[in-house]
Amino acid sequence: MPGRSPLPDSPASESPATESLASESLASESPASGSTSVDSARLLCRLDELPPGRCREFRLGEGDWPLRGFVLQTARGIRAYVNRCPHLDYPLNYLPDEFLTYDGSLVQCTMHGAVFEKDSGLCVGGPCLGRSLHVLPIRIEAGCVLLADGVDVVALAARFA
Ligand code: FES
Predict the structure, then answer these.
(1) CATH no. for residue 54?
(2) Nearest CA to 58 among 108, 106, 96?
(3) Given a cut of 80, is residue 74 above it in pLDDT?
(4) Whose CA is nearest to atom 3 of ligand 1?
(5) What pLDDT band is residue 109 in, cutting at 50, 70 and 90?
(6) Which ligand 1 atom minimizes the distance to the CA of 90?
């Protein structure tokens, strides 16, 4: 089935690159094997890559300017945001998959320290107080977090490039 890839059977690796997960998935099994498949072009991460209190970075799209974002578990569910700070549009993190304050209670921009609520993306402290991270609609399917259908990845990538 075009645009869909089988899921790997092995547990999630420690690799930070979700894009490599998708590539491995494409190579590991064929849909004819009967495995569950998801739309790899919208795959943000697998649920088992996202333990409570952790974040997972992703890239969607081809070329030098993919859509970059991250997924996190919150008390109210899973959220996904574009990895751009509303202050100066810089990426939020310095280290792979690291987006939270030391105590894990808030998302934090490493550049100038703005902090954001995990559930809403609202900035509650710092130079962009009152502004918000860009929320990405998601859906959960077959143990994976996917970008919701109808969200234009190319347009978003261009907007946040
Ligand atoms: S770029 Fe994020 S706080 Fe300045």
Answers:
(1) 2.102.10.10
(2) 96
(3) yes
(4) 112
(5) very high
(6) 1
Give the length of the chain: 161
pTM given for the model: 0.79
**Residue 11 counted as domain residue:** no
* Residue 1 within any structural domain of the chain: no
Tell me the residue type at 105: S
Q: Whose CA is nearest to atom 4 of ligand 1?
A: 112
125 lies in a domain?
yes
Residue 146: inside a domain: yes
Measure 92 CA to ligand 1 centroid, in angstroms.
7
91-105: pLDDT as tens digits: 999 999 999 999 999
Contacts of 19 by beta carbon, 8 Å cutoff, 6+ apart? 58, 59, 60, 66
Atom of ligand 1 nearest to the CA of 112: 3
- The structure tokens listed for 86 are 């509303």
Total tally of structural domains belonging to the chain = 1
Domain, as residue range, for 102? 39-159
pLDDT tens for 132-160 read: 999 999 999 999 999 999 999 999 999 99
* Residue 39 · residue 153 · CB < 8 Å: no
